[in-house]
Give the backbone structure.
Amino acid sequence: MNVKYAVIPCAGKGTRFLPITKGVAKEMCPIVDRPTLDYIVEECLDAGITDIVFIISEGKDDIKKYYSLDEEYEKDLIDHGKKDFADLIHKIATKANFHYVIQHEQLGLGHAVLQAKDVIKDNNFVVCCGDDICTYQGDSPVKQLVKAFEKVGGKTIVGGQKVKHENIVKYGAMGVQKQLDEKTYLLSHIVEKPKLEEAPSDLASLGKWVFNSKIFEELDHTPKGAGGEIQLTDAIAQIMKKEEVYYYDFDGKRYDCGDKLGYLEAIIDVALSRDEFREGLIRHIKSLKF
Ligand code: UTP
């Protein structure tokens, strides 16, 4: 049961992150020295994904530029004695097959995923939001979800974690029919951004899924839902009427990098995890007067 494709929607307006998103895609904002998006690409590669489909809006050429070969630039770096950097940028452009599909109108996450239909065809695939990164030990969250997808025989997996009760209103919330093991749940229903008193549980959908290609039939017919957008959650609710849908509670620390505070937390944690910055950064933080 191969999962070789990943779809990464990066075409959102990023209004929570204005003003920078007027000129720069939030997915390209750096976490230390790599774009946010590249941490998600690495998670996918850890799961054995070979083909990555970026859903981009018309102006987001910087994503394409980052993942394209640039032999002239490589040669220039080599000519200036910087072969290590030439190798680094060469590796980025060749680590997967990259595909780009334009979402002409920002009609929501479900609509963004639908744009990948002609590239994915009848393959199974992962979806990762382009602004949600994770730090982890061992298997990447995407790899954990792909393993769960294989275990349940190729049915939809919604990835997520339990959140504080008051925060569930911000996410897709899971209605559970049965818990299968410590991490896996069979779902009864799913509600996008529920009212607190109506949330079926505190299990939240956190920007990662694995689908078989049947999701496209549902997305084709999904009307606008919450916020006037075509919601991926609504298509999942439809597929649930036809076959089992599961939830997997993945291990890893997740950061919403579409939110300014989440982004800052990601930068600090990633920098602290790197030997070359750790000591200096701790010294700096300790020197601050709070
Ligand atoms: P968000 O919910 O963060 O929406 O999208 P947004 O429009 O990007 O940001 P805000 O709320 O205005 O600040 C989650 C992911 O889905 C993509 C985004 O790029 C992000 O990676 N997305 C969203 C699309 O690709 N197309 C859309 O129409 C909406």
Observations:
- The chain is about 35% helix and 25% strand.
- Residues 5 and 182 are 27 Å apart (CA to CA).
- The pocket of uridine 5'-triphosphate is lined by residues 9-17, 55, 103, 106-109, 111-112, 129-131, 258 (CB under 6 Å).
